[in-house]
Amino acid sequence: MPLSPAVWPLLPWRFHENISRRVVSLFFQFKVATFQDGGRAKYRSSFGTPYFEVSITKHQQRSLEKLQQRVRARAIVRYASPAFWSQADFDKHAASRSVLKQSAFLRPSQVGTHKKWMYAGPAGKCILNPDPEETDSESWEVLTGLLAEQAQEESIKDHVRRLAESLREGEEEPAIVAEAPWLQAIRQYWQLSQENVHYLSDLRTVVNAAERADTTWLIMFTPDEHTRQLLDDFRDRYEAYVWYWT
User: Fold this and answer.
1) Do the Cβ atoms of 157 and 199 come closer than 8 Å?
2) Averaged in consecutive runs of 10 residues, what is the pLDDT profile of the chain (246 residues)?
3) Cα–Cα–Cα angle for 138, 88, 236, nearest 5°?
4) Fewer Cβ within 10 Å of end Cβ, the chain: N or C?
5) Cis omega (within 30 of 0) on the bond before 130?
């Protein structure tokens, strides 16, 4: 949600304190699919329509499965791929804020040793191969429902700390690398408290894990009804502002 200076004066005092503290992490591995619309496309008869084909990288799949296993208590890990292919479709969905609704999502644990993921739409039937196996892709609506179920009431620092602890289990990396030159330099320059030094170390642990799996790490806030109304009111003000000036 963009916070335009034009609407900042209209927001409640200490607006951030009114945001829900129910949080959950989401790790996305974005894929670019090939649109298979030829008459001789291998699985066209199975779908009865042109379909999308995603290539799965073996080492990346192993990293994603490992990540999914370790963070499952506080995070969701998914492949994400659009169910559209043209620039015109992208522009249309971007304008209507429906890119995620028009995308398909798949758990790494569903993929296993398969090398391809085929799907025709943003949800429903999909096929994995070799040794063709039929399963279902998730829709954005289903995924957001899972995020809401898994979200927990905790601060961002606590959330990151517990994610980092789950990622460090079984690893040789110590709980905090207090002697790391980068951490010491930042601590000295900013005169950080020990709590914030630990927070930086936790952030580094999670970011490193996300990068190893080639994922984008997002922390999602699950709004309660009060927060949702606050955001809806703000969105109405922002859109009115954009309409006025454009």
Assistant:
1) yes
2) 52 58 92 93 94 95 95 94 95 93 96 96 94 94 93 90 89 57 73 81 92 93 67 63 51
3) 70
4) C
5) yes
Q: Amino acid identity, residue 224?
A: D
Rounded to 5°, the CA angle 197-198-203 comes to 100
Q: Whole-structure pTM over 0.85, yes or no?
A: no
**Which tokens is 147 given?**
């995020």
Gap between the Cα atoms of 119 and 47, Å rounded: 8
Type and span of the H or E element at 116: strand 116-119
Decide: 157 and 201 in contact? Cβ < 8 Å. Answer: no
Instruction: Determine the length of the chain.
Output: 246
- The Cα–Cα gap between 185 and 244 comes to 47
CA distance 205 to 163: 9
Helix (H, G, I), strand (E, B) or coil at 155: coil
Q: Domain locations in the chain? A: 21-222
DSSP codes of every residue in 178-224:
TT-HHHHHHHHHHT--HHHHHHHHHHHHHHHHHHHTT-EEEEEE---
**What amino acid is encoded at 107 in this protein?**
R
How far apart are alpha carbons 24 and 153 in whole angstroms? 9
Distance from C-alpha of 84 to C-alpha of 129, rounded to nearest angstrom: 21
Question: At which residue do the structure tokens 């990288």 appear?
Answer: 57
Query: Counting beta carbons within 10 angstroms of the beta carbon of residue 165, is it exposed (0 to 12), middle (13 to 18) or buried (19 or more)?
Result: middle
Query: Residue 115 corresponds to which tokens in the numbers above?
Result: 């090398």
